[in-house]
Amino acid sequence: MAPLSRRSFLIGSASFAAAAMLSNRARGAVARTPAFSAYPFSLGVASGDPLPDGVVLWTRLAPKPRENGGGMVPEPVEVSWQVAEDEGMSRVVQRGVATANPAWAHSVHVEVGGLRPERWYWYQFKAGTEVSPKGRTRTMPPAGALASRLRFAFASCQKYEMGYYTAFEHMAREDLDLVVHLGDYIYEKDDGAGAVDARKHGTPEIFTVDDYRARYAVYKSDPALQAAHAMAPWIVTWDDHEVSNDYAGDSPEHPEKISKADFLRRRAAGYQAYFEHMPLRRAAQPSGPDALLYRRLNFGRLASFHVLDTRQFRTKQPLGGGLKPADPVLLDPKGTLMGDRQREWLFDGLAQSPARWNPIAQQVILARVDRIAGPEIGYSMDKWSGYEFERRRLLRHLDARKIVNPVVLAGDIHCNWANELIADFDDLDARSVGVEFVGTSITSKGDGKEEKETAAVVRAENPFVKFYNDERGYVRCEVTPQTWRTDYRTVPYVSRPGAPLNTRASFVVESGRSVLNRA
């Protein structure tokens, strides 16, 4: 998006005043004319989970975002909002008032309805005399419409101290309909003494809800991230670092160091802060350590996004985690990433989907990748390969039910991969029943390189891997009824600002053929 001009800012401010948006809808002890110690919209604005007739609008009042309470007095505050058909905010089509509650960090989640399908809108908030930046959003096509094109990007893993968010700067300039974020939006550890650290947030490991809120404030204060949020609606899901590294369900990475009860309190804090800072609907609002995040969003009949949560319901990683050889325990039917209810929801949704393409937006790599050269085998126990029974069950479902154009999206692993999902990974000549695009990190692991030292081993041991790259960046996809094109957009460094953008590789998938064609 172009920077907000003084003229458009004044027009937007004037339209708020003209609308007299401080209505009588707020009840009780709600501050309608609050005074702020600094600009309250310091964390920007965002939108998400678009529908054909509406979208979620988000902001959070935080004049001093790194302080407990965000620098706010602990009282509810009235926040007005409006949606317009033009960037100048002169053609307002929806407006209303929301309450920013201190119990939810003075965050605002407005579920706007009554909008027209498949069109762009602009939105803005106001609290007291302060006006937020503008955001741009769009609605999905009508449910029965086969849209001619969808363009979106997906990203993950943006450890603040490991680099600058240059990739988000580039993403904000793309012509995108939406953005999909696959997790590790924040990292829970302290700064440490990492040699690759490019910048510091200066805070220790986080455990309480105030800790998590302050960490989100660090990340969301970044102008590049704010610009990417303000450019288009986002579809988000979490991975592990929104709570703690490699947690599995109600089990932490090191259960000997923390009781289950204490860990669930930490998970509750992480889940609450995540909801407070994401453009999510009320259906995703957590209750203690539980939240319903898996959901389905349809871009008309062109694409149905099946969004998964592979952390909250998974069983503990087998064999102590890490890289391990094949073992009978991996075929335990009780081992699961999704849990029974989510798995059946996914299988039913895939089988009944009317969409031309079925992207599965989730966290960890699905292809069973051997990471060790020669006859020795090493599979990651934290990925789908650690839950082999369920991994095979999913691939059988794609094959037996003839799921139309399944495309798995993944992050987590801090490298780019393009994989053909063969029906039987014990038979490397088996046919492909789907494709998988794995995106690298925005910053995590610091500066990368085009050709990683392990690339030759990965290609030799896994012929279904068609691309493997260790640079930072994001993945851009263009979808039509006939083809799916994926471009791996990379930056050569993140340790300093200003990196240029490259398209390192591109692939095209033809509808009805689960084969990766190099473009």
Q: How would you describe this protein?
A:
The chain has helices at residues 6-19, 166-171, 209-220, 223-231, 260-277, 340-352, 388-400, 455-461; strands spanning 45-51, 54-60, 77-84, 92-100, 107-112, 120-127, 130-131, 135-138, 150-155, 178-181, 234-236, 295-299, 303-307, 323-324, 358-361, 379-380, 406-410, 416-422, 432-438, 465-469, 472-479, 483-491, 502-510, 517-518. With 519 residues, the chain is α+β, with helices and mostly antiparallel strands. The chain has 2 domains: 6-138, Immunoglobulin-like (Sandwich), CATH 2.60.40.380; 151-237 and 273-518, Alkaline phosphatase D (PhoD) (Purple Acid Phosphatase, chain A, domain 2, 4-Layer Sandwich). The strands form 5 sheets. It has a 7-stranded mixed β-sheet. Helix 3 (209-220) runs parallel beside helix 5 (260-277). The protein is globular and about 70 Å long.
